[in-house]
Amino acid sequence: MTASSAVTTGTLVVPDARLYYEVRGTGPLFVLVGAPMNAAAFAPLAEQLAATNTVLTTDPRGHFASPLDDPQQDSMVLARADDLARLITHLDAGPAVVFGSSGGAVSALALAQTNSDLVTTVVAHEPPLRELLLDAADQRAVTEDIIATYDTGDVIGAWRKFFAQTGFAIPDVVVQRMFGGDRDPRQVDSERHWFDHELRATAEWVPDPPLLRSVPTRVIVGIGAASTGQFCDRTSRELAAVLGIEPVLFPGDHTGFVGGPIAFAARLQEVLGEP
């Protein structure tokens, strides 16, 4: 395990938002990004990678310490990709390896399509690219029902439906504990922004496979070894298929880097070292 790294924090003003970011370590630039997961969620993995890299993490627009000028603005994938491009350029430490998880993987793929000069490799870990699925129309209806349920004020019901769609086996007692009772107002604000202004835009984004195959950026599709049969396992395998590459397995499930950052970092370094 690495010793704790010094963390430098900053804020970058971008169109329509102010982005909070953290930087650790020295060496080639490594970006860790989620959507809606924030910098804090990636801190344990960042600590592991900071032994050999400059590691950038950020709160995505509309979440936690990255407020929007207009809180009602939707979080569009291309805007989030542009945010990443501006952060990498701001640090003047690129080009970067970008690891994106879930919605952050979608942001990273969009970055490869729009600013391939800024990113050498994208590791897209379980991107929820719904429109690649054969049952996309059915899944689209489920997504709309989830959002509608949340907007009635039934927070727990919305999360139950979301976990059912994704295949995450979260016991109901845990759902009640996580989303019922008194909650951190910042977490509630982030949750509301995700349901109302980000979930739909992320799930409906469609990558451009010919473009991703033609850019110099290397694209790696990652799947959690414990995610078999889940929604993002399916979408990730479809993405790998249309790109003509084999998906790569990582330890754990959809958030394996949170529960086991040491093993996850080792696997990430191993995968990046392969031709």
Q: What is the topology, as strand order, of the major beta sheet?
A: 1-2-4-3-5-6-7-8
The sequence of SSEs as H and E is EEEHEHEHEHHHHHHEHEHH
Structural class: alpha/beta
Helical content (DSSP H or I, runs of 4+)? 40-55%
Largest pleated sheet? 8 strands, mixed
Q: How many whole angstroms does the radius of gyration measure?
A: 18 Å
Calculate the terminal CA-CA distance, rounded to whole Å.
26 Å
- Taken as a percent bin, the fraction of beta residues is 15-25%
**Number of strand segments:** 8
Number of helices: 12
Give the overall silhouette.
Answer: globular
Mean pLDDT: 96
Oligomer: single chain
Q: Which consecutive residue ranges, at least 5 long each, have pLDDT under 50?
A: none
Structure at a glance:
This protein is of the alpha/beta class and 275 residues long.
Architecture overview:
By secondary structure, this protein is an alpha/beta fold. The protein has twelve helices and eight strands. It has an eight-stranded mixed sheet with strand order 1-2-4-3-5-6-7-8, with helices on both faces. Helix 10 (about 230-245) links the parallel strand 7 and strand 8. Helix 2 (about 75-90) crosses helix 3 (about 105-115). The protein is globular, with a radius of gyration of 18 Å. The chain starts with 6 loop residues before the first strand and ends with a helix. The mean pLDDT is about 95.
